[in-house]
Write a structure and sequence with these properties.
CATH architecture of one domain: 3 Solenoid
Distance between the termini: 53 Å
Number of strands: 28
Helix content: 10-25%
CATH topology of one domain: UDP N-Acetylglucosamine Acyltransferase, domain 1
CATH superfamily of one domain: Hexapeptide repeat proteins
CATH class of one domain: Mainly Beta
Strand content: 25-35%
Oligomer: single chain
Radius of gyration: 20 Å
Largest sheet: 11 strands, mixed
Shape: elongated
Length: 265
Amino acid sequence: MARVHPHAVVDPGAKLADDVAVGAFSWVGPGVELGPGVAVANHVSVMGPTTIGPRTKLYPFAAVGGDPQDKKYANEPTRLVIGADCQIREGVTIHRGTEAGSATVVGSDCFLMGYSHVAHNCRLGDGVILANGSLLAGHVHVAEKAFVSGTVVVHQFCRIGRLAMVGGNSTIPMDCLPFVTTVGTPARALGLNLVGLRRAGIDGEGRRALKEGYRILLRSGLALEAALEHMTALRHPLVDEMVAFVRGSKRGFHRAERAREAEAE
């Protein structure tokens, strides 16, 4: 049976797995489903419809599943889905989708640090990290194992690619390339996210291929379509992933500074 503190409120319309724990002064609303091992600390608000996967932990003053901050929202039924093994730290806010039937989705093993914000219809892949105070506007997509540093602001509909890193205090009005470090105001690509690539097990051959793809795309001076053709000719799946990301961009992507940066292998 779920362990609910006597000073917590759990709506009869919520569904809690047997080993869920809910701390004092927390609120679990109707339409909320908490999976096995979910831990809700004190002073947490979980509004529905929201589904939270196994072993996810919500820390004090997190508020998830609330109505979207969108003037177009007209009380349509929308959802929030959070995966397994996530950490939702103090003061984090995550809102449901806006359009009827839509959802905000947070993958598994995500780490959302204090006071970060995930707006309506965002999608976070598995293993995403948002550092303290980072803010994602509506419809932002963050791919697997991307790292968004502290107090980063991301414009609506932007994409952050897989294994990308966004440096602290950056302003992101366009897409951030996968495997690349992007930083600044205005933001610029500063080279490969080599630390992240190594931690993810990308071997030397893969890193060298990405380095050449990066050079062709951002340092060769080729027109975009010609650069993409040269990248495709490398015939490497990681470079192909970068090409596909660029081709799928609707807002454009952050380019490099004019001065050549040093890229240690």
